[in-house]
Specification:
134 residues, alpha+beta, 5-stranded mixed sheet, 3 helices, 5 strands
Length: 134
Amino acid sequence: LQALCAAAAGSAEMELAYGIDEVDDLFAADDATHLYRIVQESLNNIFKHSAARAAWVRLERSGATARLTVEDDGRGFLVPSGAGPAGGLGLGNIAERARILGGVLRIDSAPGRGTVVTLTLSPPPAPLPDPRRA
């Protein structure tokens, strides 16, 4: 993610700031790939559609929980109401990858207000002990 953000910051015509906490031990390789693709798709959406002057990517760790935030100050859009984000293929891909990761995805946007995509990833709850083995 550091390299992805650094490359995007170097090629973008807008300011891109980022902070990535160490989370490698939280994710299996496949899950890490899904997280990478979510950031990649979020940045692509910003570059293609937002007309933003600035964007921020943060991946913060608190214990075994990680929270990804990708934010821009661009034109924003109306977020469809309902069970999940609809709209373009990019948002659908992000939502599907978030579902695979078992994360909680939130997309907050409105015309003229920019967009904030937040994904919270927590470890699954520990299984309950089997009462038959007690």
